[in-house]
Amino acid sequence: MNSICAVAGVVIRELYRRKDFYVLFFLMATIALTMGCGNLVNDEKKEGYLKEICLLLIWVSSLVIAISTAARQLPAERESRTLFPLLAKPVTRSEVIAGKFLGCWIACGAALVVFYFILGLVSASREHEWRVLEYAQALWLQWIFLAVVIAFGLWGSLVFATPAANATICLIVIAGVLVLQQHLKDFALAHPEPERSLLYVIHFALPRPEWFDMREALITHRGWPDGVEFAVVSVYGAAYAAFFLLAAWVGFRRKSLLA
Amino acid sequence: MTPIVEIKDLRVEYRGRGLGQAPKVAVDGLTLNVNTGEVFGFLGPNGAGKTTTMNVLLGFVNPTGGEARLFGVNVREPIARQRIGYLPELTYYYKFLTAEELLRFYARIFRIPKAETERRIDELLKLVELESVRKRTIKTYSKGMQQRIGLAQALINNPDLLILDEPTSGLDPVGRMKVREIIQRLKNDGKTVFFSSHELGEVETVCDRVAILHQGKLKVEGRVGDLMQQYQSNLEQIFLRIIGYLPSPQT
Question: A213, B14, B33, B131: which could join B3 in a potential S-S bond, CB 3.0 to 4.6 Å?
C-alpha cells in the first residue's frame, strides 16, 4: 500500500503542476459560476436549464480530465523513461497500475468536489436551501463512473502506445457508450436473430452510464435511488473498474519494456 | 565468496522490426557471477549487450533463455530489487519534482521511516552537492546536476549492490572524479558495484574484475591485474584487441 500511495502522490503532484489541467479546471469553474450568478434569462423556469447545462459541463469536463489524465500515465512514463528507475525499485507492476489509478481517481474526485461545491453554492443561493445529501450522492456516483473511465484509460494505454492515440480512442469509446448504450436495447429489438442476441450481449456487457447520472434528479429533486440501489450501483461500478484494472495488470505484468 | 549477481546462460532476443525479419540476438549465452564486495566493470562497445544485461537484472526485459539472480532471488521477483540501487545511463526522473521530493518518493517505496528518510536526503544531497538547489524542480537542473540527483536516488536505500549504467557519461572531469570517489567509498564500505563504462582508465582504477562483451557474447572475464599481465598491455589495448579493432599479437 505504501508504494501505491507513493505512486498516487506523484500522479497528483504532476497534475497540479501541469498548466493544461488548470486551464480546464478554471474554465469549468468560471463558466459554472458565471452561468449561475449572472441573471442571464431573468426567468425562474429557465433556471433548471442553466443548472442542466452546468451539470452537463461538469460531466464533460470531468470526463475529459479523467481520460486525458489516465490515458497518458503509462505511455508518458515509457516515453520519458521515468518508468525505469521506478521499476528498478521493489515495486510490482500491479502496484504501479494501482497507484496510477488511485492518483487519477483522487485528482478527479478533488475536481468534482470543487465543481459540485460551486454548483451547489450557486443553486443554494437561488433555491434558498442546500441539498447536501443530494449533491453528495450525485458526486459519489459520478466519481464511481469516473473510476470505470480511468481504469479503462489505463488498460487502453497498454494497448495503444502513444498517449494521444489512447486518449482519442478512449474518448470516442466513452462518448459512444454514453450516447448509444441506452438506445442499444431498442435497436436490438428491431433486428432479427441472431443479431438481436448479439446486440443484447453488447448492451449488457457495456457499463450503464445512466445509473450513475443523477443530473435529472438534481434538477427535479425526484428519482433518487434508495440505499440498496445506491450500494448496488456503487458495487457495479467498482466491479467494472476492477475488471479493467485486472486487464491492465495482465497486459503490463509480463510486458518487456524495451522490446 | 557468495555471488550477489548470478547470470547463467542468458540469452535475449529482440523481435525483428519488419515482417519476416529475423530476431536480433542482443545477449547470447552469457554466464557470469559478481561476488560480494567486488567492483565489477562490465565493458563492451556500443550495442554489445551491456545495457540489455542490466535491463534483465532489473526486470525490464524478460530473457529469452537462461536465468539471472540477484541475492539468490530470480530477478523477476520485486524483492530482488530491495537491496539494489540503479543509476540509468541517461537521466530519467520526474522533472516536475524537486530533488528532495524525488528522493522522498523513492524512500517511501523502500519503506524507509520518515526521520531516516530526511536524514538520508540531507546526507545524499550533501554528498552530490545539490543541497542549495534541493527545492528547485529537476527540469531546471543541468545535465550534470541531473546525473548527480540520479546517483543520490540510487543510494537512497543504502544499497548492498549498485548497478550503474555508464555513470560518468555527460559529466565534467570534476563530476567524474566525484563519481569515482563515491564508488571507491562504497567499495570500502563493502558494497558491491556492477557498472558499465566506456572510460577504461576509470575502470582500470576502480574495478576488481571486468568482463568484456562483444556482439552479445562474453569474450573475456577476469581480474584487472591478471588480464593486464596476461595481455602485457593496459585495459584499453586489451579491449581494442578483443573487439577486433587492433590485431592480436599472434596475428
Answer: B33
State yes or no: pLDDT of B128 exceeds 90.
no
Residues of chain A with pLDDT > 70, as a percent, come to 92
The Cα–Cα gap between B145 and B130 comes to 7
Smallest Cβ–Cβ distance between A14 and the set B61, B78, B96 belongs to B96
Q: Which of A102, A129, A115 lies closest to A15, judged by CA?
A: A102
What's the pLDDT tens digit per position in B70-89? Answer: 888 888 888 888 888 998 87
Q: Which residues pair with residue B39 across a beta bridge?
A: B193
Burial class (CB in 10 A: 0-12, 13-18, 19+), B233: middle
Q: Is A223 helix (H, G, I), strand (E, B) or coil?
A: coil
How many CA atoms does the CB half-sphere of B2 hold within 13 Å? Answer: 8
- Helix, coil or strand: residue A65: helix
Helix/strand/coil for B39: strand
> Would you state the cell numbers that stand for residue A154, as one nine-digit string?
489505463
Residue in A closest to B150 by C-alpha: A85
Place of cell 516536475: B96
Cβ count near B86 (within 10 Å): 23
Interface contact A85-B97, CB threshold 8 A? no
Whether B96 sits inside 8 A of A90 (CB atoms) is no
Nearest to B109 among A6, A83, A254 (CB): A6
Per-residue pLDDT of A16-60, as tens digits, reads 887 766 777 777 777 767 766 655 556 666 667 777 888 888 888
User: Given an 8 Å threshold on Cβ–Cβ distance, is A90 in contact with B78?
Assistant: yes
Grid coordinates standing for B35? 561476488
Q: What is the DSSP string of A34-48?
A: HHHHS-SS--GGGHH
Average pLDDT of the residues in A177-198: 78
Contact: A81, B92; criterion CB under 8 Å: yes
Rounded Cα gap, residues B139 and B117, in angstroms:
23
A-chain residues within 8 Å CB-CB of B97? 10, 13
pTM for this predicted structure? 0.83
Closest chain B residue to A88, measured at CA:
B58
Beta strand ranges found along B36-177 (DSSP E): 39-43, 65-70, 73-74, 84-87, 161-165
Which of B78, B93, B97 is facing A13, going by the closest CB pair?
B97
Residue A249: phi, psi to the nearest 5?
-65, -45
DSSP-assigned states of every residue in B148-190: HHHHHHHTTT--SEEEEESTTTT--HHHHHHHHHHHHHHHHTT
CA distances for B157 relative to A24, A154, B36, B116, B150, angstroms: 39, 30, 17, 10, 13
Q: Does B1 contact A at CB distance below 8 Å?
A: no
**CA A64/CA B100 separation, integer angstroms:** 32
